[in-house]
Amino acid sequence: MYFIGVDHHKQWSVMSVWGEVGPEVKFGRVDNHRDAVRRFLEGCEPFKAVIEAGYSSYVMADLLEELGGEVVMANPGGLKAIAQARIKTDKRDARTLAELLRGGLIPEVRRRPVENRRAQRVIRLRAFWVAKRTELKNKIRVLLAQQREEIRLEMENREEGLFSGKGLEYLGRLVLPELDQMILDDLLGSYGEVQAHLRKTDGIVEKLYAELEAARRIDTVPGFATTLSVLVAVEIGDVERFESAAHLQAYAGVIPTTHSSGGRTYHGRITKAGNPWLRWAALEAVFPATQGSLEIRGLYSRLARRKNPNVAKVAVARRLLAIIYRLLKEKRDYIRDMNHPSVA
To answer: Do residues 179 and 114 touch, judged by C-beta distance below 8 A?
Structure first.
């Protein structure tokens, strides 16, 4: 068995090959092409490779698997030998990875299946368009805030939202000084294009919703609608990889930091470790969940009075993740029971 450390970059990778015993067998910089990687690995079969997790690492991981190897994805945050090195080069990183792999010391992260990665890209694309839409809205508001008093007062007194159907009609009729009018027309045109992209992306999200049983189960939980349900289902992936609801909560980073020493234990802010998308979705669902569930509203109200609203929000997010964990494990929908509100 050969052990290969791969320091991966966009165009090329640095690879270090080691045997089961002894010093380094082979080292080189290899272009990220199938033929180049295959030529480099000739005579190194069977092999096991390690690569640090990153947004483009899956491309190389998939290629190495296609060439017959076993691939381990390493958690960059757990590789102290690399992160804390005073002299850091691609060559040293590749060799350190290979030596750690040979010693069985790699902190692994789960590799997502191909279909799950594709679904993730859809969710990321939607988030991109939403961010662009928000940016355009803010630019339009800033532009109008710099206009004459009549326009500013009319904006403040409008009952409809500025970006509702009637609001957009108003913006389209608005007459500003020449240069500002050109800017407004350009921003409104861009806003319309982004809205079209969002509608198209929402159609893809609806398709994912129809395909993912987990998303449809999550949608039965108070606070979660189509988009959030798909996001949570995609980010969780296979729920069987979590031993308990607490593990899922830790993965979302909504558990408190803990310091225990000398018989005293202190709990601080949440860790914010793990998956930021799952954490955002759980926190985003809190307010609508308090409107749709007496149990969750009661939990939030009690904690908000005893501690503070932020603590209550995080606690409800943990509760929602615990409910989702049970539903996915037991393959059932959320049960709404007014007489027994604690039932999930």
So the answer is: no
